[in-house]
Design a protein that fits this description.
There is one protein chain. The protein has 8 helices and 7 strands. The chain is globular. The chain has a 7-stranded mixed β-sheet with strand order 3-2-1-4-5-7-6, with helices on both faces. The longest helix has 15 residues. It is α/β, with parallel strands linked by helices and 217 residues long.
Length: 217
């Protein structure tokens, strides 16, 4: 581990034993375990949620559930997180950790596409964590903002946090032929920057977070 990264870990509030277990299980079970949010980003999401006191939270891309558990830990009683995961083979694994968490009752796990499922829930979300298929980031954003004739899933004052926004530095260079992930992330960042309805800042935390506040719709 890089010395600075180790210092950050050593001087931040620790992750709990259930999250440690989930991290180990993810690295043992998953082909791409680096997709997990992990200790520092997870703690950031928990603290942000606890500060904002959102009533409804949407997560696009559950993976193995680490970030969902962190967000749920920051939620007040009576608040709820809807999280979407497309890989149905992970459902039992994810739910088993939710069931063991004292905050698991705040989470509703949905298996399927967020683009199809989220609008059907009829909710307006105070906080959104976007960590799904990078190729769909522009479509997620348009869905959330109610573009192309849809009903907005966010409202004035809502916060949208998009993960992996720097994509290992690839967004700074022209996308290679066929690199649809980089192309989509570049398009997403331009969409956000040029949208006068929002204000945003990109934080270089892990692979980059685009923190977006909705000013108006």
């Amino acid at each position: 581990m890089d010395p600075i990264e180790k210092y950050i870990h050593d001087h931040s509030s620790p992750e709990g034993p259930l999250l440690e277990e989930l991290d180990r299980a993810t690295h043992h079970r998953m082909v791409a375990p680096r997709m997990i949010s992990g200790h520092i980003q997870g703690k950031f999401l928990e603290l942000l949620t606890a500060t904002l006191h959102p009533k409804r939270v949407l997560e696009i891309g559950t993976f193995t559930g680490y970030s969902a558990l962190c967000i749920a830990a920051g939620l007040d009683e009576g608040a709820r997180l809807d999280t979407f995961e497309v890989d149905d083979e992970q459902q039992e694994f994810i739910q088993s950790f939710f069931d063991r968490s004292p905050h698991g009752h705040k989470i509703r796990l949905h298996i399927g596409s967020a683009l199809e499922g989220a609008p059907r829930l009829g909710e307006r979300y105070d906080l959104v964590f976007m960590d799904g298929d990078k190729r769909e980031y522009p479509a997620y954003y348009r869905m959330l903002m109610g573009d192309e004739g849809g009903v907005p899933l966010v409202q004035e004052g809502s916060l949208i946090i998009a993960d992996n926004i720097l994509w290992y530095g690839k967004v700074t260079e022209p996308a290679r032929h066929g690199d649809h992930h980089t192309e989509a992330l570049q398009e997403f960042n331009r969409l956000v920057r040029d949208d006068e309805r929002v204000e945003s800042v990109i934080l270089p935390l892990r692979d980059g977070l685009n923190v977006i506040r909705v000013k108006r719709l």
